[in-house]
Specification:
- The structure is a single chain.
- By secondary structure, the chain is α+β, with helices and mostly antiparallel strands.
- It has 2 domains: 10-67 and 172-186, Jelly Rolls (Sandwich), CATH 2.60.120; 68-162, Orthogonal Bundle (Phosphomannose Isomerase, domain 2), CATH 1.10.441.
- It is 37% helix and 19% strand.
- It contains 7 helices and 6 strands.
- Strands 1, 2, 3, 4, 5 and 6 form a 6-stranded antiparallel sheet that branches.
- α3 (89-96) packs antiparallel against α4 (100-111).
- The mean pLDDT is 93.
- It holds the Pfam family PMI_typeI_cat.
Amino acid sequence: MGELPFLFKVLCAAQPLSIQVHPNKRASEEGFARENAAGIPLSAAERNYKDPNHKPELVFALTPFLAMNAFREFSEIVTLLQPVASAHPAIGAFLQQPDATHLSQLFASLLNMQGEEKAKALQVLRDVLAREQGEPWQTIRLIAEFYPDDSGLFSPLLLNVVKLNPGEAMFLFAETPHAYLQGWRWR
């Protein structure tokens, strides 16, 4: 019996879902083989690779739909980070040298904050939210309604916020950070 080259889903995001990054085809094949060789059952919760396929996604909006997809242009990120520059040292490093290496370090640093470092950064963000309007600040407010203490609240400053109307679609490449925030869609 043959396999379909895609997985079809109808999904509803009543609240923002986690940021994801899907591996490319080669990494998927290697990860699947590695987990099989390690004897990890396909149904195991700790298994990352349920099959050898990569997972690029085509999203078709069924209702008004909000998502984040891929990193913004460096110049746009620099502008958006200015008001929160004091939140974390990695922001300052990126602002001084806005390149892929510093963006990767910034994203990882923000998502992995804990304790006092996280509390300070989120307080700076909350203070800025009190005076900033429009996007991406409104998206940050939406996420904060559900996850007020999540360091992922900085993500809309780094990732493109995408609003789709019913019938519109977007493609998500492998190795691209993304998150579904609100709405129904086919995937």
